[in-house]
Amino acid sequence: MTSDPNLSGRRIVITGAGRGLGRALSITAADHGADVVLLGRNPPALHAVADAIRLRTGRDSPVVPCDLAQPESIKEACGVVLAAAPAIDVLVNNAAPWLPGNIAELAEADIAATIAAAVTGTILVTKGLLPGLRQSSAADIITIVSTAGWAGWDFDGASAAFHAAKHGQSGFSDALRHELKDQAIRVAAIYPPDFDDTDPLEPDRHDAHGAPARSKLTNHEVVATVLFAISAPRCCAYPVIIMDNMRRQ
């Protein structure tokens, strides 16, 4: 664990913090000194992340249940976050349901839930926490989109509905950036390809050249990209960051 002056003491709200990328980002950001607020649908998973952070840093990370497919749940969660402290330095819109399959085979309810959580949920949680972001002198909004939200980019296995949801997040992030550019709030969208989840509490395995011993990106690289974006000098803005699997020759 290394305290980073660019992250130490910054209050970071992370959606989907109970598993995968959200869990890895929460633990890593806390390791660097950030005060992390954990949002997600699974309170036991969130509490497990909070316990891990407490053991590693000695600091508490508030757990706030939030279902992005339910507007009332979002409203309640945002109220809890802002009541605990008025300012938010970073919002990471990470939560989004994965939906594979052919459109003809998908249930209508699954399509609706995917769009509701990824698009409407992302918009509503951002709107709900915007008063807190405006209280920060150097706020960032980061949305984890995916290359499924970039025109012409193939994303194996993802359904057309998932692509539509990610394009919705992409359009929202781009428009929001223009809306907030004069309010000291940076807005960035990160587009990772399909990646593997690794456990931040386990040692990473590297090959003889020091590179990860696997053929595609992991959440470790995505976490590093998020921290890079929010740690950059305020004169630097990264509206779009596209990640790719750069294979060794």
Describe the structure.
The protein contains 6 helices and 7 strands. Mean pLDDT is 91; it is low at 205-209. The protein is an alpha/beta fold. The chain has helices at 20-31, 43-57, 71-84, 108-134, 160-180, 219-231, and strands spanning 11-14, 35-40, 63-65, 90-93, 139-144, 185-191, 240-242. The protein has a single domain, classed as 3-Layer(aba) Sandwich (Rossmann fold), CATH 3.40.50. It is 41% helix and 13% strand.
Compact overview of the structure:
The protein is of the alpha/beta class and 249 residues long.
List keywords for this structure.
single chain; 249 residues; Rossmann fold; seven-stranded parallel sheet; 7 strands; 41% helix
- For the residues shown, what is the average pLDDT? 91
Question: Could you tell me the strand content as a percent range?
Answer: 5-15%
Task: Provide the succession of SSEs.
Answer: EHEHEHEHEHEHE
Shape: globular
Q: Could you describe the largest sheet, including whether it forms a barrel?
A: 7 strands, parallel
Tally of discrete structural domains: 1
Looking at the structure, the CATH topology is: Rossmann fold
Kindly provide the name of the CATH class.
Alpha Beta
Rounded radius of gyration (Å): 17 Å
* Architecture (CATH level 2) name: 3-Layer(aba) Sandwich
Number of strands: 7
Roughly how many Å apart are the termini? 33 Å
The number of distinct helices, counting runs of at least 4 residues, comes to 6
Helix content: 40-55%
Provide the CATH superfamily.
NAD(P)-binding Rossmann-like Domain
* Unreliable spans: 205-209
